Amino acid sequence: MTRADFIERKRLFEKRDSRFNTIFMVVFFAGMLGLWALFHWIPQFNGWIGAGLVVVFLIFCLSLLYFHSGGMNQAKHEGLVCGACGGGLLNDKGEYAISTGKCGHCGQNPFSEQELVMTGAITDFWVDTDWCLAHYLCIDLAPIFFEMRDEGWAASLRPADFTSMSAAETSSVLWAAAHCPVAAIKVRLSSGEVVDADSGVLKNLAGRSSHS
Question: What angle do CA 76, 81, 86 make, to 5 degrees?
Answer without folding.
Answer: 90
